[in-house]
Amino acid sequence: MSSFSELYSHPDKFLEDHLINTSKIIRNYVYEKNVEIIDKDTFLKTVTIISLCHDFGKATNYFQKYLFTENEIERNKLKTMEETHHSLLSAVVAFYLIKNEINTQDRKGILLPFIAFLIVKNHHGDLKDIFNEVILDEKELKILKRQLNSIDDEKLQILNKNLKNAGLNKDLTKSLINEYIDNINSELRKVKRELRKLKEEQDISIYLLLNFLFSLLIDTDKTEVVVGIDNIKRPEIKFEDQFVKAYKASFCGEENKINLLREEAYKEAVEREINIGQRIMSINLPTGLGKTLTTIAFSMKLWDILYKHTGVKYRIIYSLPFLSIIDQNSSVIEELLKYNGIYPSTEIILKHHHLSDVKYTKSNSEFEDEQAKILIEGWNSEIIITTFVQFFHTLVSEKNRTLRKFHRLSNSIIILDEVQSIPFKYWLLIKELLKAVAEELNSYIIFVTATQPLIFKEEEIYPLVDKNKYFAQMERVEIIPKLDCDITLEKLSEMFDLSDGRSYLFILNTIKSAQQFYSILKTKVPNDEIIYISTHITPLERMERIEKIKKGKIKFAVTTQLVEAGVDIDFDVVVRDIAPLDSINQSAGRCNRNWNGKGKVYIVSLIDEKGQRYSRYIYDRILLDITREILSKYDIVREQELLKIIEKYYHEVSERMSSSEAKKLLDAIYALKYDSDDGDMCISKFKLIEDDYYKVDAFIELNEEAKELWQKYVGLKDIKNLFERRNIFNRFKADFYKYVISIPATAENMPPDIWGFKYVNYDSLNEYYDKETGFIAKGVIGIW
Questions:
Q1: pLDDT tens-digit series, residues 200-214
Q2: CA-CA distances (angstroms) from residue 185 to 133, 134, 138, 179, 585?
Q3: Which of 697, 741, 734, 732 is nearest to 356 (CA)?
Q4: pLDDT tens-digit readout, 502-536
Q5: Which of 305, 311, 480, 762 is the most buried (most CB within 10 A)?
Q6: Closest to 328 (Cα-Cα) out of 287, 367, 289, 292
């Protein structure tokens, strides 16, 4: 007999090669993990079985014929045949192999064969409502029998021998698998009885275990095919807090009060005694006190202690709410690494969001497009900097693509920066999930914020700094509520002596009000440059304008709330249309950031021409009412008082707002209801950011570079191969999206639709796009 079965998983790969290499990769991942969710022996046996048989169904003659049929019409016909599909047969085999191998009688042990069944059955798709998976109809059973009978006996014998040599403990013969098929429904009915208990027992660990194993299989499956087994080794690198200490010593800041406080906070955090049993921590500091470097220093110290104690190399996952902060923070960390002699290749530090460059470097090599994509989307790096959307939609998801990196949440130091951005309705959900990830997946959570929301009770979090000490010393700003009456934009422009030499930042709640106020302000200060920023300005121009402000030469700026968090700009006076109190505090962080004298933050309530408050268009009424009630008790709020006021605000929010959506989502998680046909709450309905209006993407042909990028994009239509087309687009996607904005789908002046984008060409720019205030949205209220 040949050493290979002559069965193939892919046109150029033997089936057993793919299965065995996938098993080697997945077991390599298991050896580097240290988790509580499943004991190591059961873990290893389980992943060995699911990896070695996840594509077993490809052994059928139906699949082999499809794989090597060159005629496209015939190939497509074969592809649609249910007999060609391989996952269900593989899943039945996985169910029984796990059942025979794992004998533990706790809930996880009882459900483990079914979990393996689900994982293998759906490894090319998304997860569904599990109650739709616990019975096979007669048609499916007949197809399974036909598939089994079509397998070449001699080839099966060789495949079986090779898989047993790789770790399977059971002979896969036709008679045995036939018996599996005959009995599968009987076994699944037993499982169904167990599944009915899940919602009542509220055991979140079953959800974590299923996602964890599913993630491991789909990640290793894709990695083996595209990247190969030789490219998964992690770099030889060790982190320690001395990296930050050395980097900080390289630049000497002015010895003023703000810098002294930054240094004090940094030292307090990195010198804090670490108890590795304490998994939920916080760095709660006023804005502008250097939270980024302090957080990285502590994380690297924690990494070093954990490595010495456990031998496990933890990953650092740094998650933030906004793309602009990701670029800013990743630049700081890259400079820090370079200073310490570490080249920041992608295997060391990875930025991942929907607009990321699809480029991946490892040592001195750069990977091909599809390889780079697989490595990036699998979070193959030591430091991952990503968005809240990427992070939380990995934590709560039914989708194959997002769950693929779920296993990276294990053995990780997870930093959640600007955590106050998480909507209240998800607090309970996030608390339960993060607590479970920390305990079951052996990870650590660090909340970083100036306004710590009550996701966890104070006694449940280990503070790395004494927040009261720092807030009590803050004297940079005064918040002055002017909420006795609502005012118009015109009245707002008359409130201040704009010739007093101070710099002014006006933060408004809607794009429409910001555009209108910008026009009014131009008439008031005709000789001064005014910067305008909103999401209707292209990302390229936004960053250019922010950089201009940072240089300190701009006296007046009108923006929407996109500058609130993490954007390092500084004005003498900030005027904020009323918003929830945590947003107001973030806005105050743009005022007198570096403590030169005393800054003023005015809170006003703006109304449109119909007398409607702009704040009501975008914020929850209860949050606004709580904010107004609290601020109405003060003529002036000093910065030292902010901490207690914000804590009161969060207490009121917890008392008066409903957690019903979080509870319903938790019930769906307990019940493993990933998707639903009946309209009930399910995991797929989780959405971190709700769109208040439907938006479409528009490409703005702003300049010569934009013209060239658009021509490259349109030229993709001539490339017939879908993968090649996607790979070429990935090479210039990041530059392309510098000219893409989201616009209201109901705008009356909608640009033409060309190849998936609304297209504003250079010659018609003035018709759709104002170079000062961005897209001209007629007939709608621009929210952001």
A1: 899 999 999 999 999
A2: 11, 8, 10, 12, 58
A3: 734
A4: 999 999 999 999 999 999 999 999 999 999 999 99
A5: 480
A6: 292
